[in-house]
Design brief:
673 residues, 4-stranded antiparallel β-sheet, 2 domains, single chain, 4 strands, Amino acid/polyamine transporter I, 69% helix, BCCT_transptr, mainly alpha, elongated
C-alpha cells in the first residue's frame, strides 16, 4: 500500500519553479496553438540544422574519440566510487536497465521503420536493390551505434564519476566542478539543472506519446481495439502510467530491474523468432557484411557533412543531424539513470560495456528486423512495405503479417513495447524527481506520483491537439546548447582524472628516500611552517650553495672541472660538468611557486596560511626530466642526491646504445639543425 501521509516536499524551489513554468508554458503553446508553434519552432530547428549542423557532427565525434581514449588510457582502472567499491548490480541486470531506459521503445518503433525509410529514399540515387539495401543498413548502424551510445556514455560517466568518486550530488552541475568549483551551487549550476529538467521532461513526453500510438496501432491490428481514436489512447496512458508509478515507487531493485530483465528476455525471444522464420542465411550474411561495411566506412560517415552533394542535404538534416540532436537531448535523462546504476565499475568496463554491448545488440536487432523487412518487400510483398514508410506506427505489425504465427508475434511486440514504455516512464519519473530535488534520497511518494500524472496529462493533451511534433522540435532545439555543455564535461572530466591519477599514484616525497629519521623535530618544524619566497631564497643561497661548493672541491680533487652558476630563473643555482662531445651533466635548484588549496587555507587544524601562493625549492636537470621538491634536504642529503643523478648519468653515457641520445647537442651543432 502506497502511503501518502508525508506531504512535506523535497523539491528545490530554484529548480522546480522555473522548470515547471517553462515546461507547462511550452506544452500549453503546443496544445493551444499547435500549428503556429510548430511552424516557429521548425524554422528555428531548420536554421540550426542547416547552419550549425557541424556543431553536432564535431561534438558527437569528440565524444566517441574521448571515450575510446579513456578506455585504453591509464585512467581506465579508476573506479566510479571508492577504490574498494563493487558494482551494485549484476552485469546482465545493469545492461538490461541502461538499455531499457536508453533505446527500448525506439528499437521497437524504428527496427523496421528506419531501414525501410533509407531503403525507399531516392536521396542517394541508388537504383539497384543491393546498393539501396546496403545503404539502409549502413546508415541505420551509424545512427544507432557507437556514436549514439557515446553521447549517453559521456554524461553517464561524468555523473557517476563526480557523484561516487568526488561524493558530489547526482546532478549535471556536479560534472563541471573542476571548472566552477563551489560556483556549481550558484545560479550557473541551477540553470544547468533547470535545463536538464526541461530537456528530460520533453524527451520522455514525446517518446511516450509516440509509444502510445504504436501500442494503439498494434491493438487495432490484433482486433483487440476497434480503432485508434483518442478515447482508446486515454485508456492506454492511464493504465500504463499507473503501472509505471507503481514500479517507480517500488524502487530500482524491485521495479525497473525486474521489468528490464523480463523485457530483454522477451526481445531476444522475438529476435530469434524472426531469425528462424525469416530468410535466416540471408540475415546472417547481411549482418556480417553490414558490420564490415560499417567498420570500413566508419570515419567517412563520421565526418561526412554532405557538403559536396547538395541533393542529399535534406536527408542529412532529417536523419543524421536529427538523430544527433535527439540523442543529445535525451542524454540528461539516460545519463542520470545510467549513473545511478553504475557505482563500483571501472571507467574501462563502463565505457566498453556502454559503447560495445548495446551497439552490438542494436546492430543485430536492426539487421534481423530491417533486412528481413527489406528482403520481404523486394521478394514477397512487391513493394507493399515500402509504401508504408510514412506510417511507421504500423510498419512493424505489417511486416510480421508475412511471417508465421503473426498474431502471437504481434502480441509479443505489444507486450515488449508496453514494458519498455513502463521502464522509460518509471526511470523517467525517478530521474525527474532526482533533478528537481538535487538528488534527495528522502522524497515522499506523492512526488513520484506527481511526475507520473503530469507526464500522462501533458502527453494526452499533446496527443489530442496534435502538438507532439512541436514538442519534439523543441526538444531537438535544446540539444544545441547542451552539446556545448557536454564539451565542457569532456574538459572537466579530463582535468579531474589527471588529478585523481596523480593523487593515487604519487609516491612518498623524494626527500624521504635518503632520510634516516635523524633530526626529526627539525623536519616536522619545516613541514608545518609557512613557506615564503624569502625562506626559499635563503635555502638556495645557504644550504644549496654550500652543498654545491663542497661538491666542486671534491670533483676538482678528481681532476673534474665543475662550474657553479645562477640558472635562467631569477632565484636558482646550478652545478654543471661540461663535456666536449656528450651532453653536459647539470643539476640545479630553483624557486618554484604553487597555488594553495582553498580548503587548506580554511582548515583550522593546519598552519595559518593567508596567501594563495606558496613557494618551495625544486630540482631540475639538464635532460629536461621533471624535478621535485628538495626543501627538506640537509646539505649532506642534497650532496647525496646530486651524486645519485651523476651516477645515473655516468651509467647512461657508458652504454653504446645511448650514443645518439646523449650526443644530441653535438649533433645539433654539427648539422646545424
Amino acid at each position: 500500500m502506497i502511503k501518502l501521509a508525508n506531504t512535506k516536499t523535497t523539491f528545490d524551489r530554484a529548480v522546480i519553479v522555473p522548470g515547471l513554468s517553462f515546461i507547462i508554458g511550452i506544452c500549453l503553446l503546443s496544445v493551444l496553438f499547435p500549428n503556429p508553434t510548430e511552424t516557429v519552432l521548425n524554422r528555428v530547428k531548420e536554421f540550426i540544422f542547416v547552419n550549425l549542423n557541424w556543431v553536432y557532427v564535431w561534438s558527437v565525434t569528440i565524444f566517441v574519440i574521448f571515450l575510446i581514449y579513456l578506455m585504453f588510457s591509464k585512467y581506465g582502472d579508476i573506479k566510479l566510487g571508492a577504490n574498494d567499491s563493487i558494482p551494485e548490480y549484476s552485469f546482465f541486470s545493469w545492461i538490461s536497465m541502461l538499455f531499457a531506459a536508453g533505446m527500448g521503445i525506439g528499437l521497437m518503433y524504428f527496427g523496421v521503420a528506419e531501414p525501410m525509410s533509407h531503403y525507399a529514399t531516392d536521396a542517394f540515387d541508388a537504383n539497384l536493390y543491393v546498393n539501396k539495401a546496403k545503404n539502409a543498413q549502413l546508415y541505420t548502424f551509424f545512427h544507432w551505434g557507437i556514436h549514439a551510445w557515446s553521447v549517453y556514455g559521456l554524461v553517464g560517466l561524468s555523473l557517476a564519476y563526480f557523484t561516487f568518486r568526488y561524493r558530489l550530488p547526482l546532478s549535471l552541475r556536479s560534472c563541471l566542478y573542476p571548472l566552477l568549483k563551489d560556483k556549481i551551487n550558484s545560479n550557473w549550476g541551477t540553470a544547468i539543472d533547470v535545463f536538464a529538467l526541461c530537456s528530460t521532461f520533453f524527451g520522455i513526453t514525446t517518446t511516450l506519446g509516440f509509444g502510445v500510438i504504436q501500442i494503439n496501432t498494434g491493438l487495432k491490428t490484433l482486433g483487440i481495439l476497434p480503432g485508434t481514436s483518442f478515447v482508446y489512447q486515454i485508456g492506454i496512458v492511464i493504465v500504463l502510467v499507473m503501472l509505471a508509478i507503481f514500479s517507480a515507487t517500488s524502487g530500482l531493485d524491485k521495479g525497473i530491474k525486474i521489468l528490464s530483465n523480463i523485457n530483454i528476455g522477451a526481445a531476444v525471444l522475438l529476435l530469434l523468432f524472426v531469425l528462424a522464420f525469416g530468410p535466416t542465411v540471408y540475415l546472417i550474411g547481411s549482418f556480417t557484411e553490414g558490420l564490415g561495411n560499417y567498420i570500413n566506412n566508419f570515419f567517412n560517415i563520421t565526418f561526412n557533412t554532405h557538403v559536396y552533394d547538395q541533393a542529399t542535404l535534406p536527408w542529412f538534416y532529417n536523419w543524421s543531424i536529427l538523430y544527433w540532436a535527439w540523442w543529445i537531448s535525451w542524454a540528461p535523462f539516460v545519463g542520470l539513470f545510467i549513473a545511478r546504476i553504475s557505482k563500483g565499475r571501472t571507467i574501462k568496463s563502463f565505457v566498453a560495456a556502454v559503447l560495445i554491448v548495446p551497439t552490438l545488440f542494436n546492430f543485430i536487432w536492426m539487421s534481423i528486423f530491417g533486412n528481413s523487412a527489406i528482403w520481404t518487400d523486394f521478394n514477397v510483398a512487391e513493394g507493399a512495405l515500402s509504401r508504408l514508410v510514412n506510417n511507421p506506427d504500423a510498419l512493424m505489425f505489417a511486416f510480421l503479417q508475412y511471417l508465421p504465427l503473426s498474431t502471437i508475434s504481434s502480441t509479443l511486440v505489444i507486450c515488449i513495447v508496453i514494458i519498455f514504455f513502463m521502464t522509460s516512464a518509471d526511470s523517467g519519473i525517478l530521474v525527474l524527481d532526482s533533478i528537481a530535488t538535487k538528488n534527495s534520497s528522502r522524497s515522499p511518494v506523492w512526488q513520484k506520483i506527481f511526475w507520473g500524472v503530469l507526464l500522462a496529462v501533458l502527453a494526452l493533451m499533446l496527443l489530442n491537439a496534435g502538438g507532439l511534433k512541436a514538442l519534439q522540435t523543441m526538444t531537438l532545439i535544446t540539444a544545441l546548447p547542451f552539446s556545448l555543455i557536454m564539451l565542457l564535461f569532456v574538459i572537466s572530466l579530463m582535468k579531474a582524472l589527471a588529478i585523481d591519477y596523480e593523487y593515487y599514484q604519487r609516491s612518498f616525497s623524494v626527500s624521504t628516500v635518503p632520510w634516516s629519521g635523524e633530526f626529526w623535530k627539525t623536519r616536522l618544524s619545516q613541514m608545518v611552517s609557512k613557506k615564503t619566497r624569502r625562506s626559499v631564497e635563503d635555502y638556495i643561497n645557504v644550504t644549496v650553495k654550500e652543498a654545491f661548493s663542497d661538491l666542486q672541491k671534491e670533483f676538482a680533487l678528481n681532476s673534474i672541472h665543475v662550474k657553479i652558476s645562477s640558472g635562467t630563473d631569477p632565484v636558482s643555482l646550478e652545478i654543471e660538468i661540461e663535456h666536449n662531445i656528450i651532453n653536459n651533466f647539470k643539476y640545479g635548484v630553483r624557486c618554484q611557486e604553487k597555488l594553495v588549496s582553498e580548503f587548506l587555507m580554511e582548515d583550522k587544524n593546519l598552519p595559518d596560511i593567508n596567501e594563495k601562493i606558496t613557494y618551495y625549492p625544486k630540482s631540475y636537470f639538464g635532460d629536461t626530466r621533471e624535478g621535485y621538491d628538495v626543501q627538506y634536504f640537509t646539505k649532506n642529503e642534497l650532496i647525496s642526491d646530486v651524486l645519485k643523478h651523476y651516477e645515473r648519468f655516468f651509467a647512461i653515457i657508458s652504454e653504446e646504445a645511448n650514443e645518439m641520445f646523449i650526443t644530441s647537442n653535438a649533433n645539433i651543432n654539427k648539422h646545424g639543425a
